Prior knowledge:
About 20% of the residues are buried. This protein is an alpha+beta fold. It contains 4 helices and 4 strands. One of its GO terms (molecular function) is nucleic acid binding.
Amino acid sequence: MGGLSVLAMPRAILGFLRITRWHPLTTLLVKANFDAAYRWRSHSSCSGVVVRDVQGQVLGACTRIHGQVSLAFSVEALAVFLVLEFTWDLGLSRVVFEGDSLHVIRKLNSTQVGGSEIRALIKEGRL
């Protein structure tokens, strides 16, 4: 947060901020963590995935660089598609997905047909 003073933040925000660490699973599933970064000047992004088993051992990891990405929303959508594609390629069927793409997940789960940026990207063949 650089030079920002955490003490000057309202209590509601302080209660929301917390340090989160990776925790191993307690069931016979695997966990796929994913994230993305975006460079607005070059309209490029990078998505990354790490898949771990119950003991925390890495089963696989991958990154992908994406060019010509015009929306920050698209970056998160690309990360979701990468994690789905990667776990499918590994032959995994019982996966817990963990990322910070709540907006994308809500869009994917939405039953509304019109106006979704993610559906437009799929239609254009960009996802």
